[in-house]
Amino acid sequence: MFSIAAFSCLTLLSYIFILLKIPVLIVPTILVLMLFAGKPIAKAIEKTNTKWNKRTAITLLVFILGIVGQMAIISPSGIFSKSGDMLFWSANGHDGAWHIALMDEIRRGWPFQNPSFAGERLINYHFFSDILPAMIGKYLPVSDVTLYFRVFPFIGSLFLGVSAYYLTKKLSKNQYAPIWATIFTYFAGSFGYIVTFIKNKTIGGESIFWATQPQSAAGNPPQIASDFLILTGLYFYLSFREQKEKKAKIIYSVICVVLFGTLASFKVYAGVVALGALGIAGLWQLIKEKKIDTLIITGISGILAAALYIPNTSGSTAFLIFQPWWYIRTMIVENSRLDWIDLELRRQFYLDRGGIKSILRILEYEGIGLLIFFFGNLGVRFIGLKEYIKTNVFIKSAIVISLVLPLLFLQKGVASNTSQFLQYFVLFFGILAGISVSKLLSKIKHTPIRIVFALTLIAIMIPTQIGLIYEFYKRPAFARISEGELGALNYIKKNTTKDIVIVTPPYNQYLDLKQVTPNIWDWFDTSYVAAFSSRRTYFEDYEQADIMGYSWRERDTIKKTIFEGSETQTVQKAFEETHANIIYYPKELTPAVTPEEYGLNKIFENDAAEVWKSN
Questions:
Q1: Taking the CB of residue 498, how many other CB atoms lie within 10 A of it?
Q2: Are 341 and 296 in contact, with CB atoms under 8 Å apart?
Q3: Has residue 315 got a pLDDT over 90?
Q4: Can you list the positions of beta strands (E) in 285-395?
Q5: Residue 367 and residue 158: Cα distance in Å, rounded?
Q6: What percent of the chain has pLDDT over 70?
Q7: Which of 566, 563, 548, 541 has its CA nearest to residue 612?
Q8: What gap in Å lies between CA 12 and CA 225, rounded to an integer?
Q9: Which of 135, 184, 186, 300 is most buried, judging by how many CB atoms fall within 10 Å of its CB?
Q10: Angle in degrees, 0-180, between the axes of helices 221-242 and 293-309, rounded to the nearest 10
């Protein structure tokens, strides 16, 4: 667990060195930490006194299968086809491009700009999960693609399992509870497969009830980082409460402050949940024990979180929108989810009718929706309900906060982003379910019955995981960057200065070239040019710009003028407004007015793309 705390500490130190414009100190800092940490880590390993037995073998197997399952979601992306194209599955073409572009931006140094919205500072985004990959890529000969799609997903998946295992070990004396908690963390899914089986005889439906399950978190670096950091934060908070010596309490309190204070910069939803739960635990301690040490940790952590997060936000941008019950309503009526229109029509009928009986009927329907939402998202984790009653105030509060907030609020930009609160709801319930199952199994005396019960439980929890991987691989890659385009982008990277700005074609959502694996620009609007040229672009990726609160429509209009306009003077004026140096485009998206007509020079051309530069 100290390795995970070191991950958070190194990220914070790296950020401070970047702010001070001395990132070169990151390498010696790591070496010094390794030097001082080597002996304590060796002692800790020696104390574990691990013996090879059945329990050790099961634990190792759970970790191997869990990590492989999570890596299978992200690691195939970024590989090359036989023809030299780079392939992407699922949302990795979009998310991967954004994070790779952001890693390059971080390496440039402070202040950070938005790499796909040139000239504007980076705001309203939690970028801490990109700092260490960026720094490693800066000082070691490892590609960003390898770091993003393979190295850090492995580290994240390992840390997720480790944090679940050791936190549960601290919460329960049952020797099998940590194993079961890790199983629930890696493999347990929702009951969405029941819905998909009824509807079309398939298994899947991971997020039919809205919560994305932890097994797919590897595809979202900020998410998986926040998952293992919030579990580790709780572990060290409980360790802090156990300490009697003043020096030990100070050490553990500092670790807690770093973990909880940086959490919002990894994932703001996790920061809200963790600091909220810690504050409630502090108030409970004050009332029950007349002590304020937890509140002090909460206060200092909150100050650190604010110091890190607020300077990178836009004060005029609203984060949340009050819209109660939206997730339950859409879960019921959307065709891709329950598609239970009849229940919604009944609710509306009684809502219009009025009266006491109608109100009772409405409450009945709303209750049905809430129960489906609650148990559907949890899946077999509901077995941890009894343990919830017994658990500590932090976990109770975290579960309530992460469940209630999305039931009341949406996020500006992409409304459904607040569903990410639910990931901590299912994450903590997975820990409690692991403890509950271990207790149940310890009460079953007959080994065959115990084995049947365990296998049945696993069979009920894993269909969404199996369905997720099946859906992932049953079809060709979602998107590709052609070998020719990669060559053009690499030319820009090697033959232009870092301060140039690129104008790219506007995204056309109606374009469909009917390719089995479409070009990435025919699939969705992404930051792929910024990512693979290592240069800022005038405007790419409208969805990311929308989430972060940028006013992007004017830039989109200017791009359309440059590529679709027919009058040379109008196009030239539009290009000058961008203050860009280069126009890049795949040949299928050649502009109506060629850049040569308003004074640009062609500096690169192949069978896939053209690059034009201003004088």
A1: 11
A2: no
A3: no
A4: 320-322
A5: 38
A6: 97
A7: 563
A8: 14
A9: 184
A10: 160
